[in-house]
Structure formats: structure tokens, C-alpha cells
């Protein structure tokens, strides 16, 4: 099932609210839009300005960012890079392709990344960026990925954006309210 927030397109048509997704479907998000796909044993979050093709057992990211969670071995690919979960255990990773720069970040579980000429095994907190020759450049993210229940939720850029947007709405409501011209009873 595909659900969208903001302008999300399914096969070139604006998504009303939600829709079933079938192999071969194209999902595209616009700026400030996010799409989620729930399938049996897998879930996807398609970030803003992304385009991907869903095939049921895999996704092909044309550009943008997709966050994948799967216990069914859902494979993700972009360019020459293919990410394959190492087991049927719950695995989470992010795949990004922005202006030709590809990045894979392991969030939970283990996976194998094929960069074209070689492969890299990732576990939680590892990151791979392929070079121009198709070789994997693996590194450990500073501090690794926080495990469930650890780390601050406020380090997530989407949470930070939500907090800032919520604060902006609150300030606007206070300042734009027609019931009182000032927040305080004392005029500035």
C-alpha cells in the first residue's frame, strides 16, 4: 500500500491519498513530499525529490533517497550499486543517489553491497560510497548508528525540521491571532 504526504506521483498521476502498488509502478515525490510503501515484510520511505521503480522483491532508485526496512530480503539498486540483506532478519538501510553520488548507510542488521567491481559487507553503523571505478569505499560512521532506545531523537534532521516547522506555526498562531493584537497584555 502506497501513502503520500504532499505531492506524490504514482505512474505519472497525482496520488489521491493511497493506492495499491504493483510490480513496475513508478513512485515520485516532489519537494517537501514523502511517500511510504507497506508490503508484506517490508516498508519503504521515499524521501523528497526521489524517483523509484517498485518491483515487489526489489526497488530501483533512479534518484533521491529511500529508507528500506525488510525481513523479506527486499533488494535495492541504484546505478551499479545493489544492496542485498544478508538474512531474513529485520534489516534497515538507506540508499541515496544525489547527482551521481551514491551512498549506502546500514541502520540495522547485516547486508552486502555490490559496487560493480567489488563488494562490501555492512553491519549497523557502516557506510559505503562507491568510487568511479566501481570499488566500494567502506567506513564506519562516527559513533555508529544509534541502536533502538539509544541516542537522541533530536539528532535526526527530519525531527529537527518538524520541530522548527511546529515552532513556526505556533509563533504564527500567536502573532496572527485576531483575538488579541499582542501576546502580552503589555504593549512593546
Cα radius of gyration in angstroms: 20 Å
**Overall average residue pLDDT:** 82
Shape: globular
Structural class: mainly beta
The number of helices is 1
- DSSP strand content: over 45%
Q: Span from first to last CA?
A: 53 Å
Helix content: 10-25%
Number of β-strand runs: 17
Counting copies of identical and different chains, the oligomeric state is single chain
Q: pLDDT under 50 segments (min length 5)?
A: 144-156, 166-188
Query: Quick one: biggest sheet?
Result: 17 strands, mixed
The H-and-E topology, N to C, reads as: EEEEEEEEEEEEEEEEEH
Show the helix and strand layout:
Elements lengths: L1 E4 L2 E3 L2 E2 L3 E2 L5 E5 L4 E6 L2 E5 L4 E4 L3 E13 L4 E4 L2 E5 L5 E8 L2 E8 L2 E4 L4 E4 L3 E5 L5 E5 L16 H20 L12
Parallel strand pairs: 9-10
Antiparallel strand pairs: 1-4, 1-6, 2-3, 2-5, 5-8, 6-7, 7-9, 8-9, 9-12, 10-11, 11-14, 12-13, 13-16, 14-15, 16-17
Q: Could you characterize what this model shows?
A:
There is one protein chain. The protein is mostly beta strands. The chain is built from 1 helix and 17 strands. The protein has one helix spanning 157-176, and strands at 2-5, 8-10, 13-14, 18-19, 25-29, 34-39, 42-46, 51-54, 58-70, 75-78, 81-85, 91-98, 101-108, 111-114, 119-122, 126-130, 136-140. The protein has a 17-stranded mixed sheet that branches. The longest helix has 20 residues, at 157-176. It is globular and about 40 Å long.
Amino acid at each position: 500500500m502506497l501513502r503520500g504526504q504532499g505531492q506524490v506521483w504514482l505512474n505519472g498521476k497525482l496520488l489521491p491519498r493511497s493506492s495499491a502498488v504493483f510490480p513496475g509502478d513508478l513512485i515520485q515525490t516532489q519537494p517537501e513530499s514523502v511517500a511510504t510503501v507497506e508490503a508484506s515484510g517490508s516498508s519503504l520511505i521515499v524521501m523528497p525529490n526521489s524517483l523509484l521503480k517498485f518491483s515487489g522483491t526489489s526497488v530501483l532508485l533512479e534518484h533521491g533517497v529511500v529508507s528500506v526496512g525488510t525481513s523479506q530480503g527486499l533488494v535495492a539498486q541504484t546505478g551499479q550499486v545493489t544492496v542485498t540483506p544478508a538474512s531474513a532478519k529485520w534489516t534497515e538501510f538507506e540508499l541515496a543517489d544525489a547527482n551521481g553520488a551514491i551512498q549506502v548507510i546500514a541502520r540495522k542488521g547485516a547486508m552486502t553491497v555490490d559496487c560493480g567491481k567489488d563488494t562490501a559487507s555492512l553491519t549497523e553503523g557502516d557506510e559505503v560510497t562507491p568510487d568511479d571505478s566501481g570499488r566500494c569505499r567502506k567506513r564506519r560512521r562516527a559513533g555508529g548508528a544509534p541502536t533502538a532506545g539509544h541516542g537522541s531523537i533530536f539528532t535526526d534532521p527530519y525531527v529537527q525540521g518538524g520541530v522548527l516547522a511546529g515552532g513556526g506555526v505556533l509563533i504564527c498562531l500567536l502573532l496572527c491571532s485576531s483575538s488579541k493584537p499582542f501576546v502580552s497584555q503589555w504593549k512593546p
